[in-house]
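Is magnesium ion placement plausible here? Inputs below.
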Amino acid sequence: MLNKLNPAQREAAKYLDGPLLVLAGAGSGKTGVITHKLAYLVRQCGYAPRNIAAITFTNKAAKEMRERVAKLLDTREAKELTISTFHSLGMHILREEAPLLGYKKAFSIFDSADCAKIISELLGSPDKQDIREAQSQISNWKAGFIDPAQATSLVETEADQRLALLYGRYQETLRAYQAVDFDDLIRLPVELFRTHSEALQRWQSRFLYLLIDEYQDTNDCQYQMTRLLAGHRAQFTAVGDDDQAIYAWRGASVENLHNLRNDYPRLKVIKLEQNYRSSQRILHSANAVIANNTKLFEKKLWSEHGLGDQVRVYAARDDENEAESVVLQLSAHKFEHKTKFSDYAILYRSNHLSREFEEQLRSQNIPYTVSGGTSFFERAEIKDIVAYLRLIANPDDDPAFIRAITTPKRGVGNATLEKLASHAGKRQISLFDAVFEAGLTEQLTARQHEDLLTFCNFIARMQSRAENEDCAPVMNDLLTAIDYEGWLFDSLEPRQAEVRWSNVSDFVAWINRKGEADGKSLIAMTQTIALMNLLESREQETDAVSLSTLHAAKGLEFGHVFLVGVEEGILPHRNSESPAQIEEERRLMYVGITRAQRSLQISHCARRRRGKEWEKCEPSRFIAELPQGDIQFAGLMPEGAAPAVTKEAGKAKLANLKALLAKG
Ligand code: ATP
Ligand code: MG
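Reply from A.M.:
I modeled the complex. Tokens:
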């Protein structure tokens, strides 16, 4: 089973004498070690699959790992393994332990937009900047395990005092809705483990071995969760690469690699040095760029692969020309090499850069998937349907109640809803419960009350079905009963309605399929859906080109990579100014380069449209850091029809750039 691994990898897979850290560069087989170790633990060491948990960074990575393990084990064994993200593991724990924390098991999970709405209401302001700041401060407090009372005593300025109060009211609101936010999914299990030792023991004896991928990007909460779960036994394997730490902005701390050493004096460290992913020139490029960062850990990375093609640095005239040329090259390459669309990835620093490429791909009829962007689950039509599911699962979810009862419109007006809300507020109960209270009847006309009752009775009926029946018939009846399709076509342009309805149909088909595969009820699926929102869009199911942000591309590999928009102001991002921030941007560049197996093109534009204006763009400083012997320059000059840049011109340009940079 382990005979495909090299000696260092095999040592890591077999090591069971205590905590283990595998510290190694990109493409050295860290994730592979985890996959093989899962199989090894089950087959050779007698671990029951349900006693092992592997933690990945994205749902997509979890899915891929499960598929790989399934090839080494039988399907039943692979199914019983816990392979999930920190957030879904947290959700899983909370679902079972919710009552201990005063939550019901079918709690709702609010995404960032739901939470922003609550904050906006509490602030009494729609100002996006204010909301974002409040949200991020609250999130920081939560990540640091600071509760509202502590926050109030910690803050100094009056503005922060107000924020701390807001934090308290925000928490109360979530609790009233029986809802948690994404931070809570990890914070609450940690709190539970700290305060309920019997619960901690239950989970410690549930998971006897832990494996954690992408360890460099864990935050404090995740670190605590791992520590608590591992307990004194400390049987775990963490794998990571400090050069790929790219989530500092979300509170991740590469320090956690160091902390492991302090917290576990007998920590064993294994380094892997052979890269199996990329051809030599790509690897040289990655190494040369990252060499400009200060080193945390010394790492060598070498490869037995051939030199491979030169890395192309392509200068495009403008953003449209960049997209056009990338898509053209991609199609030509695919035609020539008889590859699949899924062998190609177009990677960029910021979400908005995908638009131009999407347009070009669509016009060429090339299938593609976008990850790391606006998720499928954030579309209005999907959120409408999910609101129903959320309400069915958790009638205390007031935001879902409001969305569901008003979409499609069913004659319940604002006046009715205001009376309902005020009654519920006075009585401190949910909107749903308030409908059934005698006190409310007096305030409404018989007709108004009747409408509310009809709606709530319908939800209650669906609820008992959602618990007991398969997803498919319940979903179908739900859509028919609310006539969502009819409402779309009544209220929108036919084309728009068609698109939305087809999204809804896709979504329903997906739920039905997934619910059946995982043996989950519609209620359980509702929490799963809420989680999908976190980092990724729907799973990729077809042969398609991947469009992805660099952040979302972590851990993945592609035959051929186009790294686009590599310009000052984009990568490094214009908001990243401090040396530490520039180093994080450089790690992003490193992550991008190291996704490529056989070919890599790095492109930049001479100018870009910003609104109606053209903005002049400079190639990224990271391009100047590439090893000259391994790169080839190509592309157009800004004036238009100028010939492709020669190697000499490219060199001169680079020298120029370096001189400019040296001048600062
Ligand atoms: P990243 O840092 O990007 O997450 P990684 O260290 O997790 O990379 P993997 O994704 O596990 O690396 O492996 C990279 C590639 O190398 C994969 O295609 C994998 O199949 C291959 N590989 C790993 N180990 C070996 C080996 N011993 N022999 C052959 N191929 C290997
Ligand atoms: Mg990996």
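Short version: The mean pLDDT is 89.
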